[in-house]
Amino acid sequence: MNSVKRLTLLILPSLFFAGAVNAQELPPTAQPGKCYVKCITPDEYREVTETVVIKPEYKVLTATPPTFKTVDENVLVKEASKRYVIHPAVYETVSVNYESKSEETNMEVIPARFGNSSKTVQVQPKSGRWEYKTLENCPSANKEDCMVACYVEYPEANETIPITVLEAAATTKSVTKPAITAAYKKDVLKTPASVEEIAVPAEYKTIKKVVIDVPAGVKEAVIPAVTKTVTKKELVKKGGITTWEEVDCRLLDDAILLPIFYEFNSAKLTSDSERIIDEYLLKMMKDKPGLRIEIMSHTDSRGSDDYNLALSQQRAQSVVNYLVNNGISRDRLVARGYGETRLKNNCSNGVNCTEEQHQQNRRTEFRIIQ
C-alpha cells in the first residue's frame, strides 16, 4: 500500500495570528480557535466497461456419412398346412428374396477434363513485289537490254500451335450402391393331405436387416464470438486545486476511534455499525469533499499473526466499500489492516488477559490524510 502523509494542519488561536497566516497564503477567512486542513483536490475518474470481441463468430461444417441400424424381422418360413395319416401333404421348397441392406447414395467428385486442340496463327501476311531478272540467251551484248520486271506475289505464312482446352468442368455425381439382397427358403404346400386331417402350424424365422437410420448430410455448428469485458477509468474532472476545509479540532488527533463492530470472525458490518459510519464519516466526507481519510483496523493477539492481519485488512476494506457504495469516491479512501501489530496494552501472544483488555485492541480507527 502506498505511504500516506499527514495533512498540513492549522489552528488559529487569535486574530493576530490569523493575519500572519493570510500573509502566508493560508485560509483567507480563518477564524481564531478554528482548525483547518489544506486539501489538494484529486483528479476525479469514473469507471466504464467496454466489451471487446477477441474472436469473431464463425461456422464449422461437418460432413456426416449415413448411419445404419440393424432391425429384426419375423418372416414366415413355413406356412400352416394340414397333413393326413394316409396321404401326407407334399411340399416344395422355393427361394424368397429380401433386401438385407438398403440402397446407399454417396457423392463422388469428377475432376475437370482437358483435351488437345490447335490454333493457326498468321506469322507473315500475304505480300507482293517487283523483281528484276535477266532473260536467258540474251542476244544483246548489253545485258541490261534483256532485263525484265516481274511482279511476284508471296502467299501468307501460318503456324499451327497446339493448345489445351477445357472439355468438361469439375462436377460431382451421385454414386449409388445398390441394395444387397438375400434369400431364404420357404416350403409351400403343393398337394394337401387327404383322409385323416392333421393341422400343421406355420413356422417363422427371425432375420436381421441393415437399413439406413440417418441419411448422409452436412452439420452446421455456429461457434459464438468470444468477448472480453474490460474496465477502464475515464477522467471526469481534473484536480490539483488547493482548498481549505474547516474541521473539528478533535479530528486532529493521530487516530480517532470508530466504535463499530463486525460479525464474529467476519468482516461483515452490522446494521448498527453502518449507522455509526453514516454519523461519523459519511456526513463529514460529503460535507468536506476535499478530505481524504485512512481507515485503520486492528485485532487482538489471539489467533495467528497472518490470519489477524488478513482479517483486519478485510474489515477496513468493508468500511471503505460501504462509503464507496454511498457515493464517496474510492480515491479519497485508504483501507489498511494492522492485525495485532499496534496493541493498546501488553496483551501480546502468550499473555493472559481479560476479555475487556482484548476488547481494547479490537478496534477500528480513522485519520485525515493527504
Summarize the structure.
By secondary structure, the protein is mostly beta strands. The protein is 15% helix and 50% strand.
Task: Describe it.
With 370 residues, the chain is mostly beta strands. It has helices at residues 15-23, 271-287, 305-325, 355-361; strands at 9-12, 34-40, 44-55, 58-64, 67-78, 81-83, 90-101, 104-110, 113-124, 127-134, 147-154, 157-168, 171-177, 180-191, 198-200, 203-214, 217-223, 226-237, 242-247, 256-257, 292-298, 333-339, 364-369. The strands form ten sheets. Strands 20-23-21-22 form a four-stranded mixed β-sheet. Strands 1-2-19 form a three-stranded antiparallel β-sheet, with helices on one face. A two-stranded antiparallel ribbon has the order 3-18. The longest helix has 21 residues, at 305-325. The protein is flat, with a radius of gyration of 54 Å. The model is unreliable at 1-24 (pLDDT under 50).
Written as H for each helix and E for each strand, in order along the chain, the element string is EHEEEEEEEEEEEEEEEEEEEHEHEHE
Shape category: flat
Termini separation: 14 Å
Query: Low-confidence runs (pLDDT<50, min 5 residues)?
Result: 1-24
Radius of gyration: 54 Å
Q: Helicity, in percent?
A: 10-25%
Mean pLDDT across every amino acid position: 79
Number of strands: 23
Structural class: mainly beta
For the largest sheet, list the strands in their spatial order: 20-23-21-22
Task: Please indicate the percent range of residues in DSSP E strands (runs of 2 or more).
Answer: over 45%
Count of helix runs = 4
The biggest sheet, with number of strands, parallel, antiparallel or mixed sense and barrel status, is: 4 strands, mixed
